[in-house]
Amino acid sequence: MPPRWPRKPDRNDPAFRKLDDRMNFAVHVAIFAACNSGLWFFHNFQKADWPWAVWVTGGWATILFAHALYIFAIANYSQPSVVTKETASKSSSG
């Protein structure tokens, strides 16, 4: 059952942004697991000599790790500051 959001979804809402990013990460993990398990199943089943399989898995795992690092350590989910025309012109003029 998909998660329910109590209000209208909005990317400006920090809680929604955090949940959305984590759900996207979960989809990324699921696709990684499905594709790589299939890749290595057929690699072993056919006794194939695929030197690129290691590079695909390693590269994708590195990207997955970077995605996790961003989501869980770097991303800032605080309320975004709203920039209006007045504040933008004041900050650029002086």
Question: Could you write a compact summary of the structure shown?
Answer:
The protein has helices spanning 14-45, 51-74, 85-93. With 94 residues, the protein is mainly α.
- Average pLDDT score: 86
Task: Give the total of domains.
Answer: 1
Q: How much β-strand is present in the residues?
A: under 5%
C-alpha geometry: elongated
Helical region count?
3
Q: Which parts are unreliable, with pLDDT below 50 for 5 consecutive residues or more?
A: none
Main β-sheet, in a few words?
none
H/E element sequence = HHH
Class of secondary structure makeup: mainly alpha
Query: What portion of residues is helical?
Result: 55-70%
E-strand count? 0
Rounded to the nearest angstrom, the distance between the terminal CA atoms is: 53 Å
Rg is 21 Å
Domain 2TM: 17-80
Keywords: Membrane, Transmembrane, Transmembrane helix
Protein name: 2TM domain-containing protein
Transmembrane segments: 25-42, 54-75
Features:
2TM domain-containing protein; 94 residues; transmembrane helix; single chain; membrane; mainly alpha; 69% helix; elongated
Overview of the molecule:
The protein has three helices and no strands. The protein has one domain. The termini are far apart. The model has no long low-confidence stretch (mean pLDDT 86). With 94 residues, the chain is mostly helical. InterPro entries: 2TM_dom (IPR025698). Residues 17-80 form the 2TM domain. It comes from [Phormidium ambiguum] IAM M-71.
